[in-house]
Each structure stands twice: as C-alpha cells, then as structure tokens.
C-alpha cells in the first residue's frame, strides 16, 4: 500500500487543511465585484459629501432642523435620502476602475454643470437657494453617472437577448479573484453592437422610446423656445437620437438613468429642494431627462476616448519616425 495510509485511509486525508468558509462580508464583496479602486471611489465620495456639508453648513442645519432628536427621531428622518445615499454608495464601488471612472466623473461633472446652467437660466426649474445653478448640486451628477454605469453593466449581463461571442460579444473584464461579473462588463465602442444577434429587438425599442421622449421634451420646453440654450439642447438631443451607435446600450442606459432619476427627482421636488415651472413633483419629463442625460454622457465619453486614442496613436507614430 502507500505508507501509513494503508493503516487508516481516512486519517491520511484528515491532515489536509480545509479552506475556511468565506465570511458573509467577503462573499458580499465578491458578489459586488469590489476592487481596490472601490475603496478609493468611496473615500472620494465621502470626502465630497463632507466638503459640501462643511462649506454649505447652513443648508445641512436646515435639513437637520426637521428632525426632533429628543423624541421619536426615526419618524422625522428622511429615509428616502438615506436609501438613495446608501444605494449609490454601494453601487459605485462595484467593479470600480479609477482609469475608466475618472472619465465618467469628468464628463458627468461638466455635463451636469451644462444641464443645470440651462435649466436654471431659462427658469425651467429653480433651487430654493435661488442660485443659477448652485455649485453644491454639481457633485451629484458624476456620482449619479457612476451609479448608472454600474446599473447598465448589471442589466447588460442579466437581461436576455444579449450579445454572444460569435456575434461580436462585449466581453467581461477579467478581474482575478472577483466573481461580481454582473458589474464589470465592458461598455461598447462606437458601433460595437450594431451587428450583434437579436439587436433588432433593442432597435425597435430605441425608435419607440427616443422619439417619444423628444416629443415630450418639445412639449415641456416649449415656453422657452425663444432661448438660445433651449435651442442648443434640442439640437444636441436631435443629433444624439438620429446617430445611434449601439441600440442595446442606449436603451439600457436610458432605462437605468430614468430609474435612478425617478428617486432623485422624487426626493428633490417633494422636499422643495428644486421646483419645476409646472410645479409637478416630479414632472414625467424630468424623470426621463435623466435617462437622456445618461445617454449623452456615455456618448460624450466615447468621443473623448476615441479622440484620445487617435492622438496617442499619432504621437507614437511620430516618435517612431527616424530623424
């Protein structure tokens, strides 16, 4: 036989160490696909929140004044805001990558500034601070952009009628040691999914929802049609709708942005943090506008990556040329 194992078959294998069962926290981290960058993202998010509270402390005091800390405080707590905050904090950490997330943050901040400037300058909406726009609302846009990016990744690998390898799949990013593949799917480059199988389904959905959104946008902004900012916004949306690059991701991004936008708008309008000229809480257009903004940010990010790739390639070719 094989040495001592001939005496006791079971004792031969009893000495082999068993791998400990991962803790609930480790399993949650694995499911969410958190990386080292995730904690950097969360740290930056927390720092921004603390900075906003510090700089605009009177606003924070105004919010906290609604809570009766000497009584049943949980009845007065803004649980919708707490829920939104916790959801976004957890989701932005999923599949984080500082190299790609930096671009999302940059585009989201600049895009948010443009959108807020348009809306407040034309009085489509206004804030209780009467600022046009208030700077403290701008950081919310890149955070929302990161959240929508993670939601789109999840939808992309979870919903049926997806791309497959033979049809030019959008591969999953290989993240050693992580199992949260539902949050680490690559977004496509321009036209990456146009020839994918079953894309006709998303093409049909695209041409159903985006023209409908455009009609709703025309109706909502009609009182400000004489404003140059409104005309520019309509021209941009027209261009984006008529030049689709990937029907599937456009639809998923619109849906994810609108879903998150509902809760953000619900909180902001019911708390009268901002008010629309229609005094609806919230207007249906405002909810869907978050989806359209998310599509615009995604497309803008793809343009930046394409231009940057061309520039770096040209620089490499120039450096390789002999003197």
Task: Summarize the structure in words.
The chain is mainly α. It has helices at 9-14, 24-32, 36-55, 57-64, 79-91, 98-121, 140-158, 199-221, 228-242, 247-270, 284-320, and strands at 125-127, 274-276. Helix 3 crosses helix 4 (57-64) and helix 6 (98-121) packs across helix 11 (284-320). The N and C termini lie far apart (74 Å).
Helix content: 55-70%
Structural class estimated from helices and strands:
mainly alpha
Radius of gyration: 24 Å
Strand content: under 5%
**Low-confidence parts lasting 5 or more residues at pLDDT below 50?**
163-180, 189-195
* Count of all domains: 1
User: Can you give the mean pLDDT?
Assistant: 82
Record the strand order, biggest sheet. 1-2
Care to count the β-strands?
A: 2
- Terminal residue distance: 74 Å
Specify the biggest β-sheet. Answer: 2 strands, antiparallel
Reading the helices and strands in chain order gives: HHHHHHEHHHHEH
- If helices are DSSP runs of H or I spanning 4 or more residues, what is the number of helices? 11
Shape assignment:
globular
Quick overview of this protein structure:
With 323 residues, the protein is mainly α. It is built from eleven helices and two strands.
């Amino acid at each position: 036989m094989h040495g001592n194992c001939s005496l006791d078959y079971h004792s031969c294998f009893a000495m082999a160490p068993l791998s400990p069962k991962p803790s609930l926290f480790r399993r949650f981290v694995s499911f969410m696909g958190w990386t080292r960058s995730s904690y950097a993202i969360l740290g930056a998010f927390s720092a921004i929140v603390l900075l906003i509270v510090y700089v605009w402390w009177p606003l924070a005091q105004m919010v906290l004044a609604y809570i009766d800390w000497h009584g049943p405080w949980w009845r007065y707590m803004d649980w919708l805001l707490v829920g939104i905050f916790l959801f976004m904090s957890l989701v932005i950490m999923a599949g984080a990558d500082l190299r790609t997330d930096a671009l999302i943050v940059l585009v989201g901040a600049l895009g948010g500034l443009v959108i807020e400037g348009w809306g407040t300058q034309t009085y489509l909406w206004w804030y209780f601070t009467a600022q046009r726009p208030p700077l403290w609302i701008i950081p919310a846009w890149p955070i929302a952009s990161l959240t929508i990016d993670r939601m789109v990744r999840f939808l992309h690998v979870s919903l049926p009628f997806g791309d497959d390898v033979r049809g030019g799949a959008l591969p999953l990013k290989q993240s050693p040691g992580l199992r949260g593949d539902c949050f680490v799917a690559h977004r496509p480059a321009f036209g990456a999914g146009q020839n994918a199988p079953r894309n006709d389904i998303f093409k049909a959905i695209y041409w159903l929802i985006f023209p409908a959104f455009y009609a709703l946008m025309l109706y909502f902004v009609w009182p400000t049609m004489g404003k140059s900012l409104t005309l520019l916004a309509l021209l941009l949306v027209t261009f984006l709708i008529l030049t689709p690059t990937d029907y599937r991701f456009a639809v998923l991004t619109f849906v994810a942005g609108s879903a998150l936008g509902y809760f953000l708008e619900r909180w902001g309008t019911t708390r009268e943090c901002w008010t629309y000229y229609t005094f609806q809480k919230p207007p249906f257009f405002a909810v869907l506008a978050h989806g359209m903004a998310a599509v615009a940010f995604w497309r803008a990010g793809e343009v930046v990556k394409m231009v940057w790739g061309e520039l770096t390639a040209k620089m490499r070719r120039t450096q390789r040329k002999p003197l």
